[in-house]
């Protein structure tokens, strides 16, 4: 089980954000996020948006630090990339 996270370099809502992904399944991603206590509303299409203050917790829990470019590559190569306009709820699995 490997989860990946990019640095908190994405601005929004007065904070900086990271993206948390899996390259295996959404079920794995949802389970990891749930263990961290990330609310379901943090899930967007194919990743979780995590505010910068959760970055260290995600890494300590086992998320591997990668670049933002690597996040996109991993999602695309795994077949888990969902582009804007393809909404999927947290409970959709796969």
UniProtKB/TrEMBL annotation:
Ranges where the DUF4031 domain occurs: 4-77
Any Pfam family matching the protein: DUF4031
This protein's name: DUF4031 domain-containing protein
Organism: Streptomyces himalayensis subsp. aureolus
